[in-house]
Amino acid sequence: MFEPFTDVVPSFFGMLNQGPLTLTIFLHSVIVLPMVWIYFQEKKRLENEN
Amino acid sequence: MANKSVWSDNRFWQRSATWVTGFASLLLIWLTLDTSAQIQMGTDADLKNGVQKRVPGPTVINYKITYEMSAKRGHEVPVIGEKEKFFGRDDYSEEEAGALLHLGKLGSQAKNCMDCHTLLGNGAYYAPDLTKAWLDPAWGPDGAMQALTGKNTKEEAMAEFLQHPDQYATHARMMPNLGITAEEAKGLVAFLKHMSSIDTNGFPRNFGRMQGAVNGK
Fold first, then answer.
1. How many whole angstroms separate alpha carbon A2 and alpha carbon B80?
2. What is the DSSP letter of B130?
3. pLDDT of residue B73
4. Do A10 and B54 meet the contact criterion of CB atoms below 8 Å apart?
5. Hey, is the C-beta of A36 within 8 angstroms of any chain B C-beta?
6. Does B72 contact A6 at a Cβ distance shorter than 8 Å?
7. B185 exposed, middle or buried (CB, 10 Å; 0-12, 13-18, 19+)?
8. Count of A-B CB contacts under 8 Å
9. Do the Cβ atoms of B134 and B65 come closer than 8 Å?
10. Which residues of chain B neighbour A4 with C-beta distances below 8 Å?
11. CB contact (8 A) between residue A12 and residue B34
12. Which pTM does this prediction carry?
Protein backbone atom coordinates (compact mmCIF):
# COMPACT_ATOMS: atom_id res chain seq x y z
CA MET A 1 0.00 0.00 0.00
CA PHE A 2 2.82 2.41 0.84
CA GLU A 3 5.41 2.69 -1.90
CA PRO A 4 8.86 4.29 -1.44
CA PHE A 5 8.89 7.93 -2.55
CA THR A 6 10.61 8.16 -5.93
CA ASP A 7 10.05 11.70 -7.27
CA VAL A 8 13.07 13.82 -8.18
CA VAL A 9 11.82 16.92 -6.41
CA PRO A 10 9.80 16.06 -3.29
CA SER A 11 6.42 17.70 -3.00
CA PHE A 12 3.15 17.28 -1.13
CA PHE A 13 1.28 16.21 -4.27
CA GLY A 14 4.12 13.88 -5.22
CA MET A 15 3.68 12.22 -1.83
CA LEU A 16 -0.02 11.72 -2.47
CA ASN A 17 0.60 10.40 -5.98
CA GLN A 18 2.69 7.33 -5.14
CA GLY A 19 0.08 4.70 -5.87
CA PRO A 20 -2.90 4.11 -8.14
CA LEU A 21 -5.71 6.62 -7.50
CA THR A 22 -4.19 7.86 -4.23
CA LEU A 23 -4.28 11.53 -5.28
CA THR A 24 -7.79 11.15 -6.71
CA ILE A 25 -9.09 9.46 -3.56
CA PHE A 26 -7.52 12.14 -1.35
CA LEU A 27 -8.89 15.08 -3.36
CA HIS A 28 -12.37 13.57 -3.60
CA SER A 29 -12.37 12.93 0.16
CA VAL A 30 -11.32 16.50 0.85
CA ILE A 31 -14.15 17.80 -1.33
CA VAL A 32 -16.90 15.35 -0.38
CA LEU A 33 -16.39 15.05 3.40
CA PRO A 34 -17.04 18.75 4.14
CA MET A 35 -20.19 18.41 1.99
CA VAL A 36 -21.35 15.64 4.33
CA TRP A 37 -20.68 18.01 7.21
CA ILE A 38 -22.63 20.81 5.43
CA TYR A 39 -25.46 18.35 4.79
CA PHE A 40 -25.89 17.51 8.48
CA GLN A 41 -25.61 21.17 9.52
CA GLU A 42 -28.35 22.14 7.10
CA LYS A 43 -30.47 19.18 8.15
CA LYS A 44 -30.21 20.30 11.77
CA ARG A 45 -31.11 23.86 10.81
CA LEU A 46 -34.20 22.73 8.89
CA GLU A 47 -35.32 20.60 11.85
CA ASN A 48 -34.89 23.54 14.23
CA GLU A 49 -36.91 25.79 11.94
CA ASN A 50 -39.86 23.41 12.15
CA MET B 1 -43.15 23.37 6.03
CA ALA B 2 -42.85 19.95 7.60
CA ASN B 3 -39.92 17.62 6.87
CA LYS B 4 -38.29 19.62 4.10
CA SER B 5 -35.53 17.56 2.51
CA VAL B 6 -31.97 18.88 2.65
CA TRP B 7 -31.60 17.93 -1.02
CA SER B 8 -34.23 20.45 -2.05
CA ASP B 9 -32.82 23.12 0.26
CA ASN B 10 -31.15 25.97 -1.56
CA ARG B 11 -28.67 26.78 1.21
CA PHE B 12 -27.15 23.28 1.13
CA TRP B 13 -26.36 23.61 -2.60
CA GLN B 14 -25.12 27.18 -2.20
CA ARG B 15 -22.73 26.24 0.59
CA SER B 16 -21.56 23.11 -1.27
CA ALA B 17 -20.92 25.08 -4.44
CA THR B 18 -19.03 27.73 -2.49
CA TRP B 19 -16.88 25.09 -0.85
CA VAL B 20 -16.11 23.15 -4.05
CA THR B 21 -15.37 26.28 -6.11
CA GLY B 22 -13.27 27.85 -3.36
CA PHE B 23 -11.31 24.67 -2.69
CA ALA B 24 -10.72 24.00 -6.41
CA SER B 25 -9.48 27.58 -6.92
CA LEU B 26 -7.04 27.31 -4.03
CA LEU B 27 -5.92 23.88 -5.24
CA LEU B 28 -5.20 25.22 -8.73
CA ILE B 29 -3.19 28.12 -7.31
CA TRP B 30 -1.25 25.70 -5.10
CA LEU B 31 -0.61 23.32 -8.00
CA THR B 32 0.64 26.24 -10.11
CA LEU B 33 3.14 27.24 -7.40
CA ASP B 34 4.14 23.59 -6.88
CA THR B 35 4.75 23.15 -10.62
CA SER B 36 6.77 26.37 -10.79
CA ALA B 37 9.06 25.01 -8.09
CA GLN B 38 9.35 21.64 -9.84
CA ILE B 39 10.36 23.07 -13.22
CA GLN B 40 12.76 25.69 -11.84
CA MET B 41 16.02 25.44 -13.76
CA GLY B 42 19.04 24.25 -11.77
CA THR B 43 22.41 25.99 -11.60
CA ASP B 44 26.03 25.17 -12.37
CA ALA B 45 26.58 24.64 -8.63
CA ASP B 46 23.76 22.05 -8.57
CA LEU B 47 25.49 20.12 -11.37
CA LYS B 48 28.87 20.27 -9.63
CA ASN B 49 27.38 19.19 -6.30
CA GLY B 50 25.29 16.42 -7.83
CA VAL B 51 21.98 18.04 -6.86
CA GLN B 52 19.30 16.52 -9.10
CA LYS B 53 16.85 18.86 -10.75
CA ARG B 54 14.08 18.10 -13.20
CA VAL B 55 15.51 20.81 -15.44
CA PRO B 56 19.31 21.00 -15.01
CA GLY B 57 21.24 24.23 -15.51
CA PRO B 58 22.53 25.25 -18.96
CA THR B 59 26.06 24.02 -18.18
CA VAL B 60 24.72 20.47 -18.48
CA ILE B 61 26.05 20.71 -22.06
CA ASN B 62 29.52 20.18 -20.52
CA TYR B 63 28.52 16.69 -19.39
CA LYS B 64 27.70 13.36 -20.94
CA ILE B 65 24.02 12.50 -20.77
CA THR B 66 22.69 8.96 -20.89
CA TYR B 67 19.17 7.60 -20.64
CA GLU B 68 18.83 4.65 -18.31
CA MET B 69 16.17 2.42 -16.85
CA SER B 70 15.52 3.23 -13.22
CA ALA B 71 14.18 0.15 -11.42
CA LYS B 72 13.03 2.37 -8.56
CA ARG B 73 10.98 4.70 -10.71
CA GLY B 74 9.92 2.12 -13.28
CA HIS B 75 10.98 4.11 -16.33
CA GLU B 76 14.03 5.57 -18.04
CA VAL B 77 15.66 8.69 -16.59
CA PRO B 78 18.39 10.96 -17.95
CA VAL B 79 21.67 10.45 -16.10
CA ILE B 80 24.21 13.27 -16.09
CA GLY B 81 27.65 11.71 -16.06
CA GLU B 82 31.24 12.76 -16.48
CA LYS B 83 32.55 15.70 -18.53
CA GLU B 84 32.13 15.47 -22.29
CA LYS B 85 33.40 17.81 -24.97
CA PHE B 86 30.73 19.78 -26.80
CA PHE B 87 32.10 21.36 -29.99
CA GLY B 88 35.59 20.79 -28.60
CA ARG B 89 34.99 22.33 -25.17
CA ASP B 90 33.75 21.13 -21.80
CA ASP B 91 34.24 24.38 -19.88
CA TYR B 92 31.28 26.50 -20.98
CA SER B 93 30.48 29.03 -18.27
CA GLU B 94 26.92 29.47 -17.06
CA GLU B 95 26.61 32.67 -19.15
CA GLU B 96 28.07 31.12 -22.31
CA ALA B 97 25.95 27.99 -22.03
CA GLY B 98 22.88 30.09 -21.21
CA ALA B 99 23.46 32.31 -24.24
CA LEU B 100 23.88 29.24 -26.46
CA LEU B 101 20.65 27.68 -25.18
CA HIS B 102 18.88 31.01 -25.62
CA LEU B 103 20.07 31.21 -29.22
CA GLY B 104 18.88 27.64 -29.78
CA LYS B 105 15.50 28.31 -28.21
CA LEU B 106 14.98 31.45 -30.31
CA GLY B 107 16.18 29.51 -33.37
CA SER B 108 13.72 26.70 -32.69
CA GLN B 109 10.95 29.28 -32.51
CA ALA B 110 12.11 31.30 -35.52
CA LYS B 111 12.42 28.18 -37.70
CA ASN B 112 9.23 26.80 -36.19
CA CYS B 113 10.47 23.28 -35.36
CA MET B 114 7.06 22.60 -33.84
CA ASP B 115 5.46 22.98 -37.25
CA CYS B 116 6.57 19.35 -37.85
CA HIS B 117 8.25 18.06 -34.66
CA THR B 118 7.15 17.80 -31.06
CA LEU B 119 9.31 19.25 -28.28
CA LEU B 120 8.56 17.78 -24.85
CA GLY B 121 5.38 16.40 -26.37
CA ASN B 122 4.17 19.75 -27.74
CA GLY B 123 3.91 20.40 -31.45
CA ALA B 124 3.04 18.56 -34.63
CA TYR B 125 3.19 14.82 -35.36
CA TYR B 126 4.67 14.96 -38.85
CA ALA B 127 8.32 14.48 -37.82
CA PRO B 128 9.92 12.66 -34.84
CA ASP B 129 9.70 13.93 -31.26
CA LEU B 130 12.86 15.86 -30.39
CA THR B 131 12.69 15.60 -26.58
CA LYS B 132 15.45 12.97 -26.46
CA ALA B 133 16.86 13.52 -29.96
CA TRP B 134 20.32 14.05 -28.48
CA LEU B 135 20.22 10.48 -27.14
CA ASP B 136 19.05 8.94 -30.43
CA PRO B 137 21.48 6.07 -31.29
CA ALA B 138 21.35 7.16 -34.95
CA TRP B 139 23.65 10.08 -34.03
CA GLY B 140 25.95 7.99 -31.83
CA PRO B 141 29.25 6.34 -32.76
CA ASP B 142 27.42 3.27 -34.06
CA GLY B 143 24.71 5.21 -35.85
CA ALA B 144 24.56 6.17 -39.50
CA MET B 145 24.43 9.95 -39.15
CA GLN B 146 28.09 10.64 -38.32
CA ALA B 147 29.28 8.69 -41.36
CA LEU B 148 26.56 10.23 -43.52
CA THR B 149 27.50 13.80 -42.62
CA GLY B 150 31.25 13.06 -42.53
CA LYS B 151 31.65 14.29 -38.96
CA ASN B 152 33.33 12.62 -36.01
CA THR B 153 31.15 13.83 -33.17
CA LYS B 154 27.47 13.77 -32.45
CA GLU B 155 27.15 17.54 -32.08
CA GLU B 156 28.99 18.28 -35.33
CA ALA B 157 26.93 15.70 -37.21
CA MET B 158 23.71 17.23 -35.87
CA ALA B 159 24.84 20.78 -36.67
CA GLU B 160 25.83 19.74 -40.20
CA PHE B 161 22.49 18.01 -40.75
CA LEU B 162 20.55 21.04 -39.46
CA GLN B 163 22.34 23.34 -41.91
CA HIS B 164 21.75 21.11 -44.94
CA PRO B 165 18.90 18.72 -44.06
CA ASP B 166 17.85 18.46 -47.70
CA GLN B 167 21.21 16.88 -48.60
CA TYR B 168 20.72 13.95 -46.24
CA ALA B 169 17.58 12.09 -47.14
CA THR B 170 16.92 10.12 -43.97
CA HIS B 171 13.21 9.68 -44.20
CA ALA B 172 10.35 9.75 -46.69
CA ARG B 173 9.24 12.92 -44.91
CA MET B 174 12.43 14.80 -45.69
CA MET B 175 13.32 17.88 -43.63
CA PRO B 176 13.48 21.04 -45.78
CA ASN B 177 16.42 23.44 -45.79
CA LEU B 178 15.41 26.18 -43.36
CA GLY B 179 18.48 28.38 -43.90
CA ILE B 180 19.92 27.61 -40.46
CA THR B 181 23.36 29.21 -40.00
CA ALA B 182 26.36 27.46 -38.39
CA GLU B 183 25.97 29.51 -35.19
CA GLU B 184 22.23 28.85 -35.02
CA ALA B 185 22.85 25.14 -35.58
CA LYS B 186 25.30 25.11 -32.68
CA GLY B 187 22.69 26.78 -30.48
CA LEU B 188 20.01 24.35 -31.63
CA VAL B 189 22.19 21.33 -30.83
CA ALA B 190 22.92 22.80 -27.37
CA PHE B 191 19.18 23.34 -26.95
CA LEU B 192 18.53 19.69 -27.91
CA LYS B 193 21.29 18.42 -25.61
CA HIS B 194 19.89 20.38 -22.69
CA MET B 195 16.35 19.20 -23.48
CA SER B 196 17.46 15.55 -23.39
CA SER B 197 18.71 16.06 -19.82
CA ILE B 198 15.27 17.16 -18.59
CA ASP B 199 13.58 14.59 -16.37
CA THR B 200 10.28 13.97 -18.17
CA ASN B 201 9.10 11.06 -15.99
CA GLY B 202 10.13 8.60 -18.68
CA PHE B 203 8.59 10.39 -21.69
CA PRO B 204 8.95 9.26 -24.42
CA ARG B 205 8.61 5.63 -23.31
CA ASN B 206 10.76 2.86 -24.80
CA PHE B 207 13.14 5.31 -26.41
CA GLY B 208 16.16 3.61 -28.00
CA ARG B 209 19.33 3.87 -25.94
CA MET B 210 22.91 4.58 -26.90
CA GLN B 211 24.74 1.28 -26.86
CA GLY B 212 27.33 0.82 -24.16
CA ALA B 213 26.55 4.05 -22.35
CA VAL B 214 25.89 3.23 -18.72
CA ASN B 215 26.06 5.31 -15.56
CA GLY B 216 26.92 8.43 -17.50
CA LYS B 217 30.18 6.95 -18.83
1. 29
2. -
3. 81
4. no
5. no
6. yes
7. buried
8. 48
9. yes
10. 72
11. yes
12. 0.82
